Amino acid sequence: MRALATLAIATVAATALAIPPAAAVAAPLSVTAAAEVPPVASESEKLRAARTLGIVPTDAMMLLRDKDFVIALWRQATGSEVRASAELAFAGTDLACTEWIKSGVLSANERDQAQQMRDAEAARVAREAKEAAAIVAGIAPDPELVVQSDRDFIYQVTQRATGPRVRAAALVAFGAAAADQKEFIANGVRTAHAQDQQDAIDADAQATEAEKARKAAEAARGRAVTVVRIVPTPEIVSLPDDDVLRVIADGARPGSEVEKAAVTALRSRVRADWKRFVDTGVYEANWRDVAAVLAQKAAADRALVDEIRHKAVVGGIQPRLARAAERALAGGVDAVRAFLDQEQYEVLTQSFSRNAINGNIAGQYLRESADGVVVKPGAAEPAPGEGLDATWRVVAGLAGDGCFSLESPAKPNHYLARYYDGKKTQVAVQPANGTVDFGWNATWCVDNILPGAGVTLRGGADFLTRQADGRAGMGVEFYWWVTEPLPDSTEITVNWLNKYLPDYDPYTDLLVSPLGPEQVDGAVRYRDFQRRSAPGQAAFRSYWSRGGAVHPLTTGRGAACASPEILATYLRLSGHPALGVPVTDEACTSDKAGRFVNFAGGGSIYSVDRAGAHAVLGAIRAKWLSLGGEKSTLGYPTSDEVAIPGGRRSTFERGRIDYDTATGVATVYPAS
Fold first, then answer.
1. Helix ranges restricted to H, 412-471
2. Is the pLDDT assigned to residue 417 strictly greater than 90?
3. Other beta carbons within 10 Å of 211
């Protein structure tokens, strides 16, 4: 019971408001790409949020950062859901505050108008948990204190508490993990305060044992009444236990577990029952109250996450958001809470690529460039941060629900928008100005979703498309693949997209997908890929070098002309530093008994079951090929090239070839 209640109080308390003290150093809230700028609310969005609540913002308010603007509106708001949702957002991240200004305040106000409560109870319990902790610590529980975040509230305890053990415990909790901070607010303050009180009682050498027992009882009564946020004055703590129970019952919320338990204890004529309630019963009853609120909040949160997931799936262009919501729903209460607090705002970015139908080429992305909005691949050898220009933050349409707007992650409040240049409709990334016209021009609707083809993005009556000159524009129906953000367009990636993903669908696992990041060694790049049928196992490795093409080396025996693995032999012989990159794909030998690959360094690896996989290099290879290669009387190589006195040697099924370093002559020695 105690563990469950602690978790309940701690989890709900985690949603309280945060007003960072000057001495507090906030940890990074999220990880963004190299040049990505976290989104912020625009001036027009702040004005809309304020006007929704009937508030006229001052010039000073408009200059506040998003987090402070939220608390400024909270101070003036009257609606229960608006105030509660503001507190929950403010207790979270900067992203949560920004999204509250952009859309959260609107939906919360609608709930207030419809008298639909979703956040009010959770916010109330969060405030009350900190209010009770403040009273225990001897701190006045003013409204702005009890809506701070866990960490910032604890900081205030370190500065304002009078008890040495409370301050010491608060200092430890201030630098502790989030779960420990929650436990400190729920129980740690009270435990440390009880120790401070007992220390003071024990230190009084003049007090008799009876006096010490009386003071201990008064201390217990004082801690008990703080559960219902009553300051333990001398008049209250000196009351008999049954009168303290009446004080608690009167201060408890009507119908609460605390009220019921206090009344039940009062009905008993056994004094031990009264004392038991003061010592432990009031806390257990309060934990049951909080657990009930937590359960209701958890159910509401799950419903909200499922709604977000459904909209993301139906919308068609937010697969990352849909997958994150699915993971949260599968992960339980903590995962759902984490998704709503932060993750949902971190998975809004996507990229848009031409697809492989109707002659289009995958790997060409919708991107912002110095020449405007274009559809083209990135650099074959990308610099750090490559792909941000081809990344878009997919948000609710500025013109209304059901459609979307594409925001630049490098320039907050700049959106992909249509405009008329006097001749035809064009597209560009433009700053939002809050007008209805801009909202309409920056809104894109998904008309068609076809597995393996992607989605269409319609703006007005026309579709976002790639024009003949490579620029983005408006025209006839055009399909886009919705892909992961920060895409690269290296030769290996483009080869993969066009060769292995003709049935790409962002809502399913890919038939072939990267197993890890692309590796770079000077002018050589390579990457491992896996198949859906064997996840986590490399199916092949693709190589590319400057001026060359992409060629894969498969793992295992291969599908056509199965034979011992060539990649393993290649790596055993030191790979591209020794042999160079592949310059051909794996191909069947002339007799279809095995496979071979040629390399940039002038060598080849031949593989056949009866002889294994071996490299043939340089002059020895040239001599062998001049005889007919595997069709010659020598047959397949049976060893890699090795050093011999004065030269090099390769052995074959029916003989050998020696190379004389001094003369440069390769001589054939057939087997007798």
1. 436-441
2. yes
3. 12
Last residue of a domain, one of 203, 229, 263: 203
> What Cα–Cα distance (Å) separates residue 652 from each residue in 218, 624, 637, 656, 671?
98, 10, 4, 5, 9
CA 17 – CA 19 distance, rounded (Å):
7
Q: Which amino acid does the sequence have at 410?
A: A
pLDDT tens-digit profile of 104-161? 999 999 999 998 888 999 999 999 999 999 999 999 999 989 988 899 999 999 999 9
**What is the C-alpha separation between 179 and 158, in angstroms, rounded?**
18
Q: How far is CA 440 from the centre of its chain?
A: 30
Is the domain of 509 the same as that of 594?
Answer: yes
Res 99 pLDDT > 50: yes
* C-beta of residue 170 within 8 angstroms of C-beta of residue 153: no
pTM: 0.78
Integer Cα distance of 521 and 509 in angstroms: 30
Strand order in the sheet with 612-616: 587-588, 594-598, 604-608, 612-616
pLDDT of res. 506:
52
- According to DSSP, the β-strands at 612-616 and 604-608 are antiparallel
Q: Is 273 helix (H, G, I), strand (E, B) or coil?
A: helix
- Residue span of the structural domain in which 113 resides: 2-203
Tell me the CA distances in angstroms from 285 to 142, 248, 288, 633, one per residue in order: 25, 12, 5, 92
Compute the C-alpha angle 487/488/493, nearest 5°. 110
Distance of CA 585 to the CA centre of its chain: 38
Q: Look up residue 444 and give its DSSP letter.
A: B
* 3-state SS, one letter per residue, for 492-506: HHHHHHHHHCCCCCC
* CATH number of the domain to which 440 belongs: 2.80.10.50
Other Cβ atoms closer than 10 A to 137 = 25
The distance of Cα 40 from the centroid of its chain, to the nearest Å, equals 18
Asked whether residue 18 carries a pLDDT value surpassing 80, the answer given is no
Shared domain for 61 and 182, answered yes or no, is yes
